[in-house]
Predict the structure.
Amino acid sequence: MQKAARLLAGVIPSEVLMIKVDNGKIFFIENHLFDPVIEKFDGILDRYRRYEVELFVHIVSDPSCRYESGVGSNRTLREIAGLDAKDRFKRILVNKVVNANPKGFYANKVKKDKALPDEIKSVSFAYCHQDEVSKHFSARNSEYGFVFFHDFLQRLGMLPVRYINEEDEESIRRLVFNEAYLLEAYGRSYDMRWENEWRINRDLFFDFEDVAFIVVPDDEYFEFIDFTIKEDLEYLVLPSSVFNDPLQFFLIAHTMEHHAWNQIALYGEWKVDFEMFPEFTDEERAEFMARCGEHVACLAKAEIQDVYERRFVSRFMSFASSLKEDFLRKTSFNELKTVSANAGEPYQTHRDLMMHCYTERLDVQRKNIDL
């Protein structure tokens, strides 16, 4: 279901979104940081079943994808046209630049002997819900991607795509003069409105602090951890299952570099090795998901929220800590202790959900575990 449809249907109240677009401006939604601190386990589900992760995602295309076939085959830069998505991704990681490509309604209207004009070159982003990212993986035949902080993209002038079908003649003329790169068209055989696409009209140069995290296929997670260490690249890496397979993410979460758990505490205190648990049988998997399906979905949400918010909220905390205490006491900033506690909540949620799910897993798999 598209984001707009969910909003219209009242499924997602705006106050529980991670970020929100309002009058063309992108805002981080901070409401939850001022909520009472979660003190009971049930409070985790109360908060996270309503919390919706939405992000601006850039997926690196593979040359085999539909975007680089037919009329789109001549739009890729020559130096990367022969590279697969993985090599393109590594190139971006090292060079810290995403090159703009020709896009939009006018990309196919250029004379044969003319180069594609810079006015229609752009870098694209999908503004999408967590469970919609897998559609972009499929469309681009790639699970390599970037999630940049929204305020960084906003400073670069990122704007939503506009469709000629929905604009009047005066509006189209204004856009051609000012933002021709934003114009697209849709029809029966080509309708990409589902992408909820935004664009920046330039090559995107960035630094490590502009990137919330990068995304790689699960089976290449440790390869990219090693690659970032070898190349001295300061990226936080997440596996693609955090978007498209919450159960798979749950199964590998303890191995991730920024968690690196050696043991898990069952029933809140009994520590055991993760290796104690065998692979699920089909029957066990079904029973576990019946018990913990919502919990592992919340776990994936909390993971994304944690890595995105951790540094973003730290900017606010750094700013607020520099203000005079007597001023803080007289304003809404007097709730900084609550904000500080809630800023660490996603990490604590991850821990508590992992302990709960593994306790349930023990019960589900008890007959196949040598205790």
